[in-house]
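Feature request, filed as a ticket because there's no other form

It would be nice if the structure record came with a short human-readable summary line next to the tokens. Right now we just get the raw output. Example of a typical job, pasted below so the devs can see what we mean:
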Amino acid sequence: MLTKLRLSWGMHFLHRKTCRLFILIISFGVSNAFAGLTSGFSFLSTDFSPRSAAMGSAFITMRGDLNTLNLNPAGLVSVKGKPFLFNYTNYLLDINGGQAAYSFIAPYLQRVAVAVSYMDYGDFKASDQYATPTGESFSAHDFALTLTQAGNLDRYFSYGVSAKYAFSQIENYTAQALAFDFGLQYAAPFENDLFFAVTLLNTGWNVKRYSNVKESLPTMLNVGVSKKLAHLPLEVSVMLRGLNQDSGEWYDRLKRFSAGGELTLSKHLRLRLGYNHSLHQDLETSATAQGNFGGVSGGMAIYWKSFRFDYAYSNLQDLGNVHRFGISGYIH
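Raw output as currently delivered:
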């Protein structure tokens, strides 16, 4: 997502070669509100997966799905065969993004995956210092290439590591960064279908900056737990996110939680529901403090032959709604 650094740079650029500032501020504000971050390259924390987003992004304990590489690469260990996925996200205004990924077994490396992600913020019309349109326009977009390796440490522990190259561009100005994800999953031996996980995401550094201002990447320390119920085809998951980020009091970190569930109705249909309290707080205003549904999400999956079709809906309250679509399957 576009970042606070890029906003301040964009303001300077627009003051010099001013575009329609109102539209730009809205675009930047929406993207940052959705990410809940103000670090550089915040788009690296974007959840492109419809399955994960429908469950409030409480997804770090999930397994056997190529979509886990976004939030916990350790979840790739139980992936079977040669899966692929294509995800598309329709954000507000002209903002849209997507991801394509593929995974396979490599000698000595166990499970390997490669993914390409992008965010496109649309075109902006430029004007001069007197707000007179110049007839010119420019665009802004982000891109990331991810390489992931995952394996088993023993019978109960699995791990995953991802390396990311990120590229960002506004008009002719560019920035680059390198980031890494680390994830662990633990299958409890004392209880069936009980899983714990911890992740450290987007730790790294800027290779090239837009300006001389140095900003950290959106590093996130997350922990989670999930359980498949014994007498109901439902898996519930809870996650605490951003435990490394500053809070007024230590217990304020407990407010950064998300929860979700996935209900299997048949071998062809699954329903999902989620809630992201951190996003809810970011969206909450005095005008919408009572009875709003910001941070609530839902979705479904349809299975057909070797393919799965996913859809997710996320409520951003007064800002609007976000729709995600995905298709995944296996290469035989």
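Something like this underneath would help us a lot:
The two ends are 35 Å apart (CA to CA).
The first strand starts at residue 83 and ends at 90.
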